[in-house]
Amino acid sequence: MSMQWRGTRCPWVICLAWGTFLLVASHGFAQDPLFEDIPTTPPSTTDSLDPTNFGGDSSPFPGDITAPDGLGTAEGTEDPATLLQEAAQHLEAEEYQQAVQKYQQVISSFEATEAQEAEANYGLGKALSEVGQIEGALRTLRQATELDPTKKEYFYEFGALLNRIGDFAQAEANLTTAIDLDGTETYADAYQQRSISRRGLGDYEPAREDIDRAIQLDPSRKEYFYDLGLLLFQMELNAESLDAFARSIELTAEEEDYPEPYVARSAVYISQGKVRPETPEGRQDLLLALEDCRAASEIAPNEGTVYFNWGLIHRYLGEYDDAILRFTDAINRFRLSPSAGRVMAEAHLRRGITWVYMGEMALAAEEFDQAAKLAEGTATGPTLPASVGRMYLWKGIALAEQGRYADAIGAYSQALEIVSVYDQALINRSFAYARVGRPLKALEDINHYIRLKPSAATGYYHRGLIYEALDQPREAQASYARAIDLDPDHAAALGRRSSFGEGPGRSPTQPPLVIERYTPDADSESL
Fold first, then answer.
1. Closest Cα to residue 343, out of 381, 311, 296?
2. Could you read off the pLDDT of 421-431 as tens digits, one per residue?
3. Predicted confidence (pLDDT) per residue in 65-116, tens digit
4. Are 526 and 25 in contact (CB under 8 A)?
5. 368 touches 395 (CB < 8 A)
6. Residue 111 DSSP SS3
7. Would you call 333 exposed, middle or buried from its count of C-beta atoms within 10 A (0-12, 13-18, 19+)?
């Protein structure tokens, strides 16, 4: 696989492992057949992930690229112009260690002019970027723009790299400068990259104007149609998105290793098929997604994203054994990247959800625990991302299904420490408290849930059950009545209310039903 694939294009493919459920989830999340009556909302689409090596090592030289021997004594021993020419040749030939050494010699030379030093920083930034040394590349590219603020290519390269790490605001600013410095309004690559920035910022219409402009300037670029497809997908224009990905595939030569449009197109088909997997139309969408995953796997057999999508397809088709195998394939391939912890955590989560479908709750609980540990280990900043809370929620559900209600309470509490307004964790913890004989704690949680979701009949129904356990029939009847007001067809609430004798406050004629667990949509990333 080429270095271009690893250094330039790979982030957008691997990002789909994290972004697949963000993109798919944002397009018509339906309830999974196993878990019904679960309210969902579109998840955030601002999360991004680039699990390439971001240069955690403090050294500016990646892997086997080391500082050249005698770097401090080589100053002035060779003409800077000659060094720059040789460095550019090494860069073109993907000989990055030699390129790094030559550019460093220029930067250290007393004879180099400011313009030559700027060019050396620019070239060094490109070389470091190609091998995943992002921090060093950012520093040197920023230095290039400061030393020579007249070169559009310096601002373009800096902006494109900022896009890779998700700093879309700074990327947009630098790319706008590149376009302004060009002055001809024909800088197609800069328009394409600025479209990515604006898409990342949620400015979809300006992003579409930019990518349309790039395509108008150069309609032969497969990458442009790929980016257009991603944008249209996020704009919920699925049919147009599929057309854009198809055009990107058409423009890809047979010998090229470009799996991105296949992976992304499979996400579109998944988003459509998962809504109605039991229908011929939904099954057809999922089978089309499967074809794209197979095509992508032939191009990039070690790309975990492909197998992640593949696993989702099998799960929606009800082929759980195959789903487990594909999620396992994804995890094994993500292990090849030292920075793929977040996407690997998501793969563990999805494999765990599949175990739930298969009734293997002990395996599921282990999977969710592993997912949470991986996600915590890759988190940055003082707070954990909300997605980790979701992993603890699922761990609690798996524990509760084994009758381990005290342990489940601990898992739900961990989820609520991360997301204090996590309604699904509250209603599940309420259930667990009721099962361990702590109805007052159960009532506290269900009241909190109702404050968060006052229009949800389920909360009032569950509160009615808790009031029955507390021997407060008037309050129970009132809660059931409220549930029925919100949902006149709520059979469980109707059944419980009818079990009460005549007159207000009478005790029910049969014992209260066991509080049912409240399970989240298996694919919603929103909390």
1. 311
2. 999 999 999 99
3. 444 333 333 444 589 999 999 999 999 999 999 999 999 999 999 999 999 9
4. yes
5. yes
6. coil
7. buried
